[in-house]
């Protein structure tokens, strides 16, 4: 992640035409995003497919997406690795920049070198915005021990909104995930971690 010195409004960010790089807008500053690893891409792709399968089985009018944005503050827009949104929300932005301005149902971040941003800033932004569920996939166990425990092992943190605050559940090897958005998902931490092999 490389911070630029360019100040921008959310409207400037929407008009951005540089397709050779992806940026997040963080409190008016454009932040260039480093291309992800193949392990990161595999995990995101796997989750998108699993979410789509589950949505198909439940009949919910939802869709999952990769490579879309989520506006979290007046001049902040994040690029989660995977989101789940309603079809009505998707219809509102179908022919413009794929940035949701209302809270998606679920956002997933796959941890990379900027893990502090995922566990601190994005967590606080998603909670304040009212995103029902926020997953942090730390398959490399690089987050601080205060977030993933000690000894540090690959961990999936699922933050579920209860009232206006997130409650976290930690899942490790051998654990079956529990999601309020997808209560019958039947997904294990091992299945997700296997995508990084």
Q: Which class best fits the helix and strand makeup?
A: alpha+beta
Helix % is: 25-40%
Which architecture name does CATH use? Alpha-Beta Complex
Q: Order the strands across the largest sheet as they lie in space.
A: 4-7-9-10-11-12
* SSE order, one letter for each helix or strand: EHEEHEEEEHEEHEHEEH
What is the 3D shape?
A: globular
Strand content: 25-35%
Please report the number of helical segments.
Answer: 6
Stretches where pLDDT is under 50 for at least 5 consecutive residues are none
Number of strands: 12
CATH-derived topology: tt1808, chain A
CATH class descriptor = Alpha Beta
The CATH homologous superfamily: tt1808, chain A
State the end-to-end CA separation. 24 Å
Describe this structure in words.
This protein has about 200 residues and is an alpha+beta fold. It has one domain: tt1808, chain A, CATH 3.90.1570. It contains six helices and twelve strands. It has a six-stranded mixed β-sheet, with helices on both faces. Strand 5 and strand 6 (about 75-80) form a beta hairpin. The mean pLDDT is about 95.
Secondary structure blueprint with pairings:
Elements: E1 2-7, H1 10-15, E2 22-26, E3 29-33, H2 38-58, E4 62-65, E5 69-73, E6 76-78, E7 82-86, H3 87-92, E8 99-100, E9 106-110, H4 115-129, E10 133-138, H5 145-148, E11 155-162, E12 165-171, H6 189-194
Parallel strand pairs: 5-8, 9-10
Antiparallel strand pairs: 1-3, 2-3, 4-7, 5-6, 7-9, 10-11, 11-12
């Amino acid at each position: 992640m490389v911070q630029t010195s360019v100040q921008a409004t959310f409207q400037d960010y929407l008009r951005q035409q540089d397709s050779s790089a992806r940026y997040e807008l963080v409190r008016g500053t454009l932040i260039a995003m480093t291309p992800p690893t193949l392990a990161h891409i595999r995990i995101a792709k796997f989750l998108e497919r699993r979410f789509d399968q589950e949505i198909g089985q439940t009949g919910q009018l939802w869709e999952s997406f990769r490579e879309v944005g989520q506006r979290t503050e007046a001049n902040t827009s994040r690029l989660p690795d995977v989101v789940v949104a309603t079809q009505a929300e998707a219809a509102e932005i179908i022919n413009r920049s794929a940035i949701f301005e209302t809270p998606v149902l679920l956002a997933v971040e796959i941890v990379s070198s900027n893990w502090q941003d995922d566990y601190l800033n994005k967590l606080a932004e998603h909670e304040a915005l009212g995103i029902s569920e926020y997953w942090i996939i730390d398959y490399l166990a690089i987050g601080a021990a205060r977030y993933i425990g000690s000894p540090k092992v690959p961990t999936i943190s699922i933050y579920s909104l209860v009232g206006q605050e997130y409650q976290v559940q930690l899942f490790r090897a051998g654990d079956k995930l529990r999601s309020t958005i997808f209560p019958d998902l039947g997904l294990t931490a091992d299945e997700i971690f296997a995508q990084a092999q």
